[in-house]
Structures are given as structure tokens and as C-alpha cells.
Amino acid sequence: MADTEGTPDFHLAAYVTNLGKYNEGYLVGEWVKFPVTPDEMQDVFRRIGIGGKDVFGSPYEEWFITDYDCYIDGIYDMLSEYESLDELNYLADKLDEMSDAEVQHFKAIVKMGEHSDSVQDLINLTENLDCYEIYPDITDEYDLGYYLINELGCYDMNTLKALENYIDYKEYGDDTALNENGVFTDYGYVVCNQSDFKEIYNGSRDDIPDEYRISSIPDIEAEQKDAVKTEEKKPSIRQQLAENKSKSEKTQSVPLRQKNDLSL
């Protein structure tokens, strides 16, 4: 797992591994805490050898994910080793934009099992939280029944006061949850309010905003060649000493006669 001493500052991290090295018997990878910038991901790829070449000259172009660190219950088990880094980055940024209350709302819906079969589903869910009602203090059928009758005012309690001891709150709550497909979670009671669920992401990489696309492979060989060319353009130490000597001679004092001429 990623280093998470104290309160974690991220919702999702993945251990990105060089697949070619793994097939050679080496576990070469690095933890990535999403979201990251394209440049940051390029640096990770360089450090784990993605974009480099093996002893036969074949490039390392593939990676996979060997572990996840996730602080949204219900997501860890649905993530695979070949998830899109672009999608993970997109999702993590959407989660980072949420308030604490919205994150709790999101967690409750995920526990409900709605729109949580894929990263694509989860990305779309982040923009559709208002399609669900969450009741944080209701954790079981009795709580729901009591809330509906006594607090929401489904019935006139002044009329039912004499029958209060005979009301089966648990049974009423159970029937209600069954009829409206509500679910009790660790985060409260969750029910869909039948609002239209809007798809903002269709699963295509082209549909991911540019700033979240991080899976381009660096051309390490080309970068190394550019670095060599740059180094070749630099003057040698001998050349630098000669240039410095020449500059020093040019800045020496003007001859005395020339000084006198200037004073006239």
C-alpha cells in the first residue's frame, strides 16, 4: 500500500508496474496517488522503464496495476489490473472536487450498488449524486418506519396516538424499503428519487478531458539522443578556459598613452 500515515490526502492510488520487466522476473513499479499531471506520470514511466528498451532492443510499452489503495468502500474489489490510467485519473480528480458531504453521499450510493460496475460508471455517478436521497441517521428498518410515521408526518399522530403502542415500525420500514428499492448502508438509508441520470462520459478516451490523459509513453531513446546532442554543443573545459582567458585580456587596462589621448 501507499504510504498513508495519518489522514490520507487522496482517495485512490495504484501501484503501476512495468509488464515487460515483470515477465522477465522483476517487479519494477511505483505507487501513483491520483490525480496526477501528464508530466508527473511521464516521470513515473521513466523511473520504471516504460519507454525504454530491453536487451534485445524491444521497447517496454505496457504496464499493469498490481495493487490499489482506495478509500471509497466498494470500489477496490471492482478494479482490475488493466484499468485505464486516464479513467482512474479522471475519477480521482472528480472525487477531489467534492466536499466531504458529497464524498459521503457518493460512498453511500456505491455501497448501494448503483452505477458502480466500472470506472466509467463511477465517473458518471460523480455528476449524478442528486439522483439519490441519503438519510444518514437511518440505519435499519425500524429507524425508517419511525422516521416516516413520527417525523415525516405520513400519518396524523394525533389520530393514531391511542394506537402508537401497536404500530410495528420495523415492518412498516421494511415494506417501504422494499417498495421503493431503498438500501440500508453504513452511511445511512439510500433511495433513488427517479431523477434523470445523465451520462457525461461515454467510455471513449476522446471523451476524457485532455488534462486527465496521462498514459502517453515517453520516448526515452529520443530524449537520450537529444541530451547527447545538447552535451556535444557545450564547449570543452579547455575551450572554456581559452575563452575566459581571451575575455580577461580584452578587459585589461587601456595603455597609458591611450589614456592621455582620451583626456585631451
Q: Overview of this structure, please?
A:
- By secondary structure, the protein is of the alpha+beta class.
- The chain folds into two domains: 1-97, Antirestriction protein ArdA, domain 1 (Ubiquitin-like (UB roll)), CATH 3.10.20.480; 99-200, Orthogonal Bundle (Arc Repressor Mutant, subunit A), CATH 1.10.10.1190.
- It is 42% helix and 12% strand.
- The protein contains eleven helices and six strands.
- Strands 2-1-3 form a three-stranded antiparallel beta sheet.
- Helix 3 runs parallel beside helix 5.
- It starts with 11 loop residues before the first strand and ends with a helix.
- Residues 256-264 have low confidence and may be disordered.
Key descriptive features of the protein:
264 residues, Ubiquitin-like (UB roll), Arc Repressor Mutant, subunit A, 2 domains, 3-stranded antiparallel sheet, 11 helices, 42% helix, elongated
